[in-house]
Amino acid sequence: ILHKDIDKLSKYACTFGLSTGIMVFMKITLTAPIFAMILCILFLLIREKAYFQILSSIGSFLFGFFISLFPVVIYFSYHGAIEDLIYQEFIFGFLRGTDYGESFNLLWELKLSAFYVVFFFALFQKSLKAPFRILLFTMSVIGYIFLHLGTPFIYYFTSTLPVFVLGLSLFLQLNDPFVITLKLSFLIPLLAFFVFSGFYVGEALNRIGDCIDAKTNPYYQNYYEQSLELCSLIPEQERQSIYCLESSCTWFEINQVLPAYKYQINLPFFIALDPSIEWDLYYYFLNKPAKWLVTSPLEDLDIPDSIKDEVRYRYELITFNDFHELYTLRR
Predict the structure, then answer these.
(1) Beta-carbon count within 10 A of 296 CB
(2) DSSP character at residue 290
(3) pLDDT of 227-237, one tens digit each?
(4) Which of 41, 82, 110, 258 has the maximum number of C-beta atoms within 10 A of its C-beta?
(5) What angle do CA 247, 248, 250 make, to 5 degrees?
(6) Are 139 and 162 in contact (CB under 8 A)?
(7) Which residue has the higher pLDDT, 179 or 261?
(8) Residue in 276, 266, 307, 250 with CA at minimum distance from that of residue 101
(9) Residue 18: strand, helix, or coil
(10) pLDDT in tens, 64-77
């Protein structure tokens, strides 16, 4: 668009469609940068009155999107789980993505400071070409809105990186970072950059420190050893039939097995979002329970009593350790 060579857009639109489809089924919240770029390109094409290119790009985009959709649909159809896919990815995903587990606060806004960096740069940098200005405005505003629709889990903020990298590269093209000027177009983005960098550098160092400490923390070593010991009591040929009721997914990662049902963590939170999940679990225990059940101490779990009663009725406690209890299905 910048070089008036819009005939090539349709092939890039196919890549956009492919990327969008992949992101939709990974984490739909993180599609904000792609969605913003699509809106920007559409606006620029309308401004250029390139209506044929709009239609051909839409067709190419949909083609790429359905290419990414095809293997997902085939896989879930084969396993009879299309309804589960739609529910988990879109219906429940929307409920979780728009739930506010914490109120707006300064820390939340600091995590979004990359959007401020780019927004102020696009606003004050007079020499920035119009297509880039519109793109940066769109990506920063859309991204900001998306991340205010619900509780901002820490990994959501990776969606700030595409616009930040693009904005930083354009800033370095138009400004010499080693020459300090008093222009607002230089000072405001630079100040916002240091706020962004200061926050994320500190967070990154803390995370690295946590990982280093975890290797020597006896708690994690005990958890690892006791997880292996508990799983060793389950016959290897029966390890495809283990349900984990409100325990860490780490247990399954350590033992390299998969849970036998779809709800195994965050049950109080999930049931609060959708009470039908409680009945779904009740139906599961009533009709097709796994042979083995691993759980954190049952009495301490903040889950409905009806589920606890089903566990006690259908399962027998075999053993327990500092972290988990192991049950087997009554004969």
Answers:
(1) 17
(2) -
(3) 999 999 999 99
(4) 41
(5) 145
(6) yes
(7) 261
(8) 266
(9) helix
(10) 999 999 999 999 99
Measuring CA to CA, which residue among 160, 170, 167 is closest to residue 200? 160
How far is it, in rounded angstroms, from Cα 175 to Cα 68?
A: 40
CA nearest to 307, candidates 286, 329, 330: 286
Both tokens of 84, joined, read 């589960």
> CA 311, CA 291: separation in Å to the nearest integer?
12
Q: How far apart are CA 296 and CA 244, in angstroms?
A: 9
The encoded tokens of residue 233 equal 């009591």
User: What is the per-residue DSSP string for 218-244?
Assistant: HHHHHHHHHHHHHHTTS-GGGTTSEEE
- Look at residues 45, 3, 2, 37 and name the one whose alpha carbon lies nearest to residue 17: 37
Task: Report the alpha-carbon distance of residue 41 to residue 118 in Å, rounded.
Answer: 18
pLDDT of residue 6: 67
H or E segment to which residue 294 belongs? strand 292-295
d(C-alpha 284, C-alpha 244), whole Å: 13
Q: What pLDDT is attached to residue 326?
A: 94
Contacts of 31 (CB under 8 A, 6+ apart): 20, 23, 24
Q: Which two tokens stand for residue 7?
A: 């005939």
| In contact, 53 and 60? CB cutoff 8 Å | no
- Model pLDDT, residue 42: 87
The CA distance from 292 to 231, in Å, is 10
pTM of the model: 0.71
More confident call, 180 vs 279: 279
Q: What are the beta bridge partners of residue 320?
A: 325
Q: What is the number of other CB atoms lying within 10 angstroms of the CB of residue 207?
A: 11
Q: What is the DSSP letter of 154?
A: G
Q: Are 291 and 256 in contact (CB under 8 A)?
A: no
